[in-house]
């Protein structure tokens, strides 16, 4: 019985460990910034994306417009390709304001998830708490509300953001680059729910 | 100084005259509707290019896209975006056939009321038949060789989206040259048609998915 409890405790301990940390080596980075910036959402200009949202196998496409209004406030609109606005929300530091949503999308879970994703994507000025290395990548740990955000940078480019609780990964944001070193695709993949958002910059 | 003032007044009135909107009187309105109806009866096919501009209050720049469209009476429409992305939709036999840069999808319009309404809206605004739709309260104004039909949707399904839909008709040939879809917030999408061809021959392959 005692052996069983020990084995259970062992598995519990390791299954609770954050998988993100497994391949990371905490280390000092000489040129580490004090605050982390997402270079793709640093200024107050609107970004326009052709977007594809896949939720539990169902795909919805449209145009996503994201505009930072202040350091920690953004506004987003999701429209059909024909231009009709389906959703318009202002993402606040800890919540959101619904400006407009069609009935089919006017659901708290949808608005809250989308607001949280955009808050993570556009976050800036977050204090770097710890630094790590993963092969050639420099990794910076910051905190946003109750979450940890790991920023993976390589050759000066932000390549990935991983959002976690203390024990679980919640969201991975991958930045893919073209030959001209410009971002060609941003992929937001959720871990707990079958939700994937792909953003292709069009302007 | 006096010359400058009179020049200014003259310019003001010229500008005012050229932009002034004058409502159609009941007789003009009836004649105009009859002419549009006759024209849409004659319209078997249409094709042209379009420039779409989306204006959002919180975004300084306009969001533009453009492409080609094809219409075959009574309700076959292909809407093909060419820049800044490749995306086409065909409204055909109660279905919406989407080709998103090679990724194909088929949506049954009866299960999606929003797209069904949009499909009707697009087909009927291209051929002008929307003027005959009793689901709108419409008033007409004329302005520089254009008749502008300002249409306010009565049904909840459309009024949820649009405060008004404006159709700009060329009074020489009764073709719709511009459609403006104004949302409740005041944000709008404007679609301008260019190189319009009336009754061109259209190969059946245009509407294949």
UniProtKB/TrEMBL annotation, chain A:
Name of the protein described by the UniProt record: DUF4292 domain-containing protein
What PROSITE patterns is this protein classified in? PROKAR_LIPOPROTEIN
Organism for this UniProt entry: Mesonia algae
User: Out of the domains of life, which is the source?
Assistant: Bacteria
TrEMBL record, chain B:
Kindly state which keywords UniProt assigns to this record, in alphabetical order: Lipoprotein, Signal
Q: Name one Pfam family in it.
A: LolA
**InterPro entries named among the record's database cross-references:** LolA/LolB/LppX, OM_lipoprot_carrier_LolA-like
Q: Where is the signal peptide?
A: 1-20
What SUPFAM superfamilies is this protein classified in? Prokaryotic lipoproteins and lipoprotein localization factors
Q: Which PANTHER family match?
A: OUTER-MEMBRANE LIPOPROTEIN CARRIER PROTEIN
- Give the protein name, as stated in the record: Outer membrane lipoprotein carrier protein
Organism name: Mesonia algae
